[in-house]
């Protein structure tokens, strides 16, 4: 979300004719993107992870396209989509995540993702 905010601010500054602000926000978006690509891409799993340095999947990763972070046909997104579907799909429904949390292991679908 931080990347999306900086990216949108850069776009807004460009439209408003504020090149200095556009450059500032674009540099910040680019720095965040580099961090995401370095720390959220899980090389072993071949997918984006829900946390930096982690392996866990979260259905919110499917928003990467909606946020315009990646294109739908990007190989990394396609691999992430397949991994999320394989790990979190339960019949016609999808879990938000499968990692145990304060409430235990999730047992119900996250219908907004379904």
Automatic annotation (TrEMBL):
Domain GH15-like: 1-90
InterPro entries: 6-hairpin_glycosidase_sf, 6hp_glycosidase-like_sf, GH15-like
GO MF assignments: hydrolase activity, hydrolyzing O-glycosyl compounds
GO biological process: carbohydrate metabolic process
Short name of one Pfam family: Glyco_hydro_15
Name of this protein: Glyco_hydro_15
